[in-house]
Amino acid sequence: MGPAEQDTLALREQLFHERVRECIICALLFASLYILCHFIITHFKKHTDFAAVHDDEDAAVNRITLGLCTFTLATALGAVLLLPFSIITNEVLLSFPHNFYIQWLNGSLIHGLWNLVFLFSNLSLIFLMPFAYFFTESEGFAGSKKGIMARVYETSVVLLLLTLLVLGMVWVASAIAGNDAASRQSLYDLWDCYLPYLYSCISLFGVLLLLLCTPFGLSTMFTVTGKLLVKPRLLEDLDEQLSCTRLEEAAVSHRISSGKASCWLNLDMELLREQLLTIRSRRRTLELRHRASPWQRNLGYPLAMLGLLALTGISVLIVCFHVLELLLDDAAMPRGMQDASLGQVSFSIFGSFGAALQVILILYLMVSSVVGFYSSPLFTHLLPRRQDTPLTKIIGNCVSLLVLSSALPVFSRTLGITRFDLLGDFGRSNWLGNFYIIFLYNMSFAGLTTLCLVKKVSWAVQAELLRALGLHKLPLPVARRRPLGKPC
Question: Which of 20, 255, 363, 365 is deepest in the core (most CB within 10 A)?
Answer without folding.
Answer: 365
